[in-house]
Amino acid sequence: MKSHPVSILAVGSLAFDSIQTPAGKAEQVLGGSVNYFSIAASFYAPIEVVGVVGEDFPKNHLDYLASRKIDITGIQVVPGKTFHWVGAYDTNLNEAKTLSTALNVFEHFDPRLSEKHRQVPYVFLANIDPVLQQHVLDQIQSPRLVACDSMNFWITGKPDELKKTLKRVDILSINEGEAFLLSGTRNIVKAAEIIRAMGPSVLVIKRGEYGSMLFTPTSTFIAPAYPTQTVVDPTGAGDSFAGAFMGFLAEAGAHREMLKTDPKQWDLLLRRAVLAGSVMASFTVEDFSFKRLMRLENSELVDRQHKLMAMTSVQ
Amino acid sequence: MKSHPVSILAVGSLAFDSIQTPAGKAEQVLGGSVNYFSIAASFYAPIEVVGVVGEDFPKNHLDYLASRKIDITGIQVVPGKTFHWVGAYDTNLNEAKTLSTALNVFEHFDPRLSEKHRQVPYVFLANIDPVLQQHVLDQIQSPRLVACDSMNFWITGKPDELKKTLKRVDILSINEGEAFLLSGTRNIVKAAEIIRAMGPSVLVIKRGEYGSMLFTPTSTFIAPAYPTQTVVDPTGAGDSFAGAFMGFLAEAGAHREMLKTDPKQWDLLLRRAVLAGSVMASFTVEDFSFKRLMRLENSELVDRQHKLMAMTSVQ
Questions:
Q1: Is residue A272 less than 8 Å (CB to CB) from chain B?
Q2: Are B81 and B87 in contact (CB under 8 A)?
Q3: Chain A contact for B268 (CB, 8 A cutoff)
Q4: Distance CA A160, CA B286 (A)
Q5: Which of A157, A188, B177, B278 is 20 to 30 Å apart from B308, CA to CA?
């Protein structure tokens, strides 16, 4: 079986989350970066997930993913418990506080790709150990586009390994606090310059409810967040942002070579992909876990995209 | 002497500031809301300032204001010392910490308007006691547009008086933290709804380096901040934002009646005024006091406005 010409390989965590926010509490709900990523991305393109869960992980959720045409053959079910994250948000919903992390079966996660996975044209390396991110890249044959995420834990704990990963990716998507930590400066323009010099030609800095910024070799784009009245749980906003962003690029057949062949079109595609990410994230936060995404209609996405464009127009 | 048909009356403080930021220190430099406001606004329209200073205030600065065609006949020089604010910013440059405030002659500020001031078409009430703001409005004959600012100190200390002021203004311009405090909610969409119900038909919520949001009866606009690499001192960013915003509206001959006669054009004008404010603020922060504004060229404003528009375009 061959990979679909626009499919995305997503490697990262599937998890249980226990979350407390000003809007309420959710105990042991489904979460994890590639769960959010792949559900969001599946609105745009076929997804192949590589991850690991314990025997306690609900089979019907894997069935649900499969029903969205998400290839789950790369999700290993192994003896033991699934990764469990416990976190809380105070009134500043832009930053999660980790209360506890039980890696469980995720501790020995070793992503091994099938022949089909190796041929995938688009790759998203969610926030996992940069050594594993490189290990995935070693197995990929000739991707059109590779994006990755990271976090404070790796920026501080494995900076050299992370830098090796960054040399090999086209796009890095991280949040603002992480960008400041990684670059060593608190100015976003300078931070972007420093980080792009580490490797990624394209950098997306996510700023929570303040939107995001996109830095490419030819331009800077300031993207708004969609202002929703209903903010229940910010968990997964960044991963679902990345999902819609990569999904949009894959659906459009984006290729890193476009930077050379048609830099203007490349920039425009990236900008629209960022807006798709913004809109997706705005739905994610409206309920706990990915409940809102599971009941999301394509027409709602389109409607909110139009509204967001209207909210930034000066014409 | 009659007021110019597009001139703006600005009532507020002229001060000395002593400021500490991550970029350095400035002792006893010129500051105050209407100083920033009127220098910024004077790029667009004639300004008439009403304020009070002590005998220690440099006469050559008043001459400088006059050289910018700012009418300073409303600035009283009285025995005593000028208002002195001492503040600091930590790495989060979006929020000032007040270390001390010496009101000095400002304590007995009682804005009395000349005949010329009373006929002014545009009014900006900077962040002063809401009782004084009302006192100014009592003296104005028939303004085309009234905008005001406020701050935590009055929101908490004189909420009832502030609400009386709000019933009488067209536009309120405050920062995000103040909007949350005034509305009692941390969601910006809900906060805007609550505050607009208090009176101001138009609300601008300033979000520091994250830009601002504009709420009108017919639409919502999400405005970017211009991302500058040089952030030396955020003091006065909000007041110079308001100055360019009001200056732009005055220059365009805006009138509150436009909401009824041409709501689309009204929204567009307000949006462009917000962008003018964003650009002005981005220059203000590039040096201590209003040093950057004093050496600012019109061509730089236009250039940065174009760049900012390009940074939000998806076409």
A1: yes
A2: no
A3: yes
A4: 34
A5: B177
The complex scores an ipTM of: 0.93
B309 contacts in chain A (CB < 8 Å): 314
CB atoms within 10 A of CB A160: 7
Range 87-116 of B in CB contact (< 8 A) with A: 91, 93
Residues A203, A191 contacting (CB under 8 angstroms) = no
Q: What residues of chain A lie within 8 A of the CB of B190, using their CB?
A: 229
Q: What are phi and psi of B66, to 5 degrees?
A: -60, -35
- Report yes or no: A268 at the B interface, CB cutoff 8 Å: yes
- The two tokens of residue A18 are 């226990």
Q: What is the pLDDT of residues B202-258, one digit of tens each?
A: 999 999 999 999 999 999 999 999 999 999 999 999 999 999 999 999 999 999 999
User: Is-contact A130 A59, C-beta < 8 A?
Assistant: no
**β-pair partners for B202:** B171
- The tokens for A273 are 């992909």
Cα–Cα distances in angstroms (integers) from residue B133 to residues B50, B126, B202, in the given order:
12, 8, 18
Contact list in A for residue B231 (CB cut-off 8 A) is: 187
Tokens of B9: 């009356």
Tell which residue, A99, A140, A154, has the closest CA to residue A8.
A140
The Cα-based distances of A169 to A13, A198, A242, A256, B156 in angstroms read 19, 10, 14, 10, 50
Contacts of B187 in chain A (CB under 8 A): 229, 231
Give the C-alpha separation, B47 to B49, whole Å: 6
User: Is A151 within 8 Å of A181 (Cβ atoms)?
Assistant: no
Tokens 């509204």, residue located = A307
Helices B263-284, B33-41: axis angle to 10 degrees equals 120
What are A246-288's pLDDT values in tens digits?
A: 999 999 999 999 999 999 999 999 999 999 999 999 999 999 9
| Interchain pair A221, B312: CB under 8 A | yes
